[in-house]
C-alpha cells in the first residue's frame, strides 16, 4: 500500500483533534524550533467554537492498517485576518507597486499558517499536499479568493519551496517581527486561488487531481470563471 493511501486530513472539531494538533506543535514549534513557550497558546480550547479559525491535521496510519495513527502535520486558516495586525509588522514591500493593505481590503483574504510537519514525514510531499487539499476545499467553499502566509527566511525546514514552486505563492513583502519567537526575517507570500487552480489544471499533473478530485461541480465553478 502506498503512503498516500494511508494519509488522511481532517478539520479539527473536537478535543481529541486538538490534542493531535498540539502533539505536532510540541514536536516542531516547541522542542525543535523553540518558536513558542506553550503550544496551548496557539490552539486554545475556545478556538474549537470559532467560525473564523480552522485547524487541519494530517494523520498517517501505520502498517497494517489501523494498528496506529500518527499525527503528521497541521495547518491553520484564519478567515478575514485583522488588517491592523499586519500593518503593525512594518512591511517592506518587494514590489513597490503592490499595497498589501489594499490587497487585504479589496479581496477576501484567508491567512494560512502554523504549517508544521513532523521530521519523519517532511520528505513526503503527500503530507503537505493533504494539508493544502483539506484547507483549500473549505476556503474555496467559503468564497475566499486569496491566501496570505509568512515563512521564515532562515528556517531550514521552511515550506517556502513547496509554497512557491508547487502551489504558486508569490513573495510580496518582508518584515522582521511577528507572533512567533524567531529572529529570522519573515517573507510574506500571497496565493491567488483562482490563478493557482487554473495553472495547476493546465499542467494536468497528479497534484491538481489530488487537490480537487473530491470536489463537486459547484466548487470547481467557483474558480473556473
Description:
With 225 residues, this protein is α+β, with helices and mostly antiparallel strands. The chain has one domain: 3-Layer(aba) Sandwich (Aminopeptidase), CATH 3.40.630.30. 36% of the residues lie in helices and 25% in strands. It has eight helices and eight strands. It has an eight-stranded mixed sheet, sandwiched between helices. Strand 2 and strand 3 form a beta hairpin. The protein is globular and about 55 Å long. The mean pLDDT is 89. One of its GO terms (molecular function) is acyltransferase activity, transferring groups other than amino-acyl groups.
Give a short summary of the structure:
Residues 22-194 form the N-acetyltransferase domain. With 225 residues, the chain is of the alpha+beta class.
Q: What are the SSEs and their pairings?
A:
Blueprint: E1 7-11, H1 15-32, E2 53-61, E3 69-79, H2 83-87, E4 92-93, H3 100-106, E5 109-117, H4 125-141, E6 146-152, H5 160-167, E7 170-175, E8 186-192, H6 193-203, H7 206-212, H8 217-224
Parallel strand pairs: 5-6
Antiparallel strand pairs: 1-2, 2-3, 3-5, 4-7, 6-8, 7-8
Helix pairs in contact: 4-7
GO molecular function, one term: acyltransferase activity, transferring groups other than amino-acyl groups
Domain N-acetyltransferase: 22-194
Protein name: GNAT family N-acetyltransferase
Amino acid at each position: 500500500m502506498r503512503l498516500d493511501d494511508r494519509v488522511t486530513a481532517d478539520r479539527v472539531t473536537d478535543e481529541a483533534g486538538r490534542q493531535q494538533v498540539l502533539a505536532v506543535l510540541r514536536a516542531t514549534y516547541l522542542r525543535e524550533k523553540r518558536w513558542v513557550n506553550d503550544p496551548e497558546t496557539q490552539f486554545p480550547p475556545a478556538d474549537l467554537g470559532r467560525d473564523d479559525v480552522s485547524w487541519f491535521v494530517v494523520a498517517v496510519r501505520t502498517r497494517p492498517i489501523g494498528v496506529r495513527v500518527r499525527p503528521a502535520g497541521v495547518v491553520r486558516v484564519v478567515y478575514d485576518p485583522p488588517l491592523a495586525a499586519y500593518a503593525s509588522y512594518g512591511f517592506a514591500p518587494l514590489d513597490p507597486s503592490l499595497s498589501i493593505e489594499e490587497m487585504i481590503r479589496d479581496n477576501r483574504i484567508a491567512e494560512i499558517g502554523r504549517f508544521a510537519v513532523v521530521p519523519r514525514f517532511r520528505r513526503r510531499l503527500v503530507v503537505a499536499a493533504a494539508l493544502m487539499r483539506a484547507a483549500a476545499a473549505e476556503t474555496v467553499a467559503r468564497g475566499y479568493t486569496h491566501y496570505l502566509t509568512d515563512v521564515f527566511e532562515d528556517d531550514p525546514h521552511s515550506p517556502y519551496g513547496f509554497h512557491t514552486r508547487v502551489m504558486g505563492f508569490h513573495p510580496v513583502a518582508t518584515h522582521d517581527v511577528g507572533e512567533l519567537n524567531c529572529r529570522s526575517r519573515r517573507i510574506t507570500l500571497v496565493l491567488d486561488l483562482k490563478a493557482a487552480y487554473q495553472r495547476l489544471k493546465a499542467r494536468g499533473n497528479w497534484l491538481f487531481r489530488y487537490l480537487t478530485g473530491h470536489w463537486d461541480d459547484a466548487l470547481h465553478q467557483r474558480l473556473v470563471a
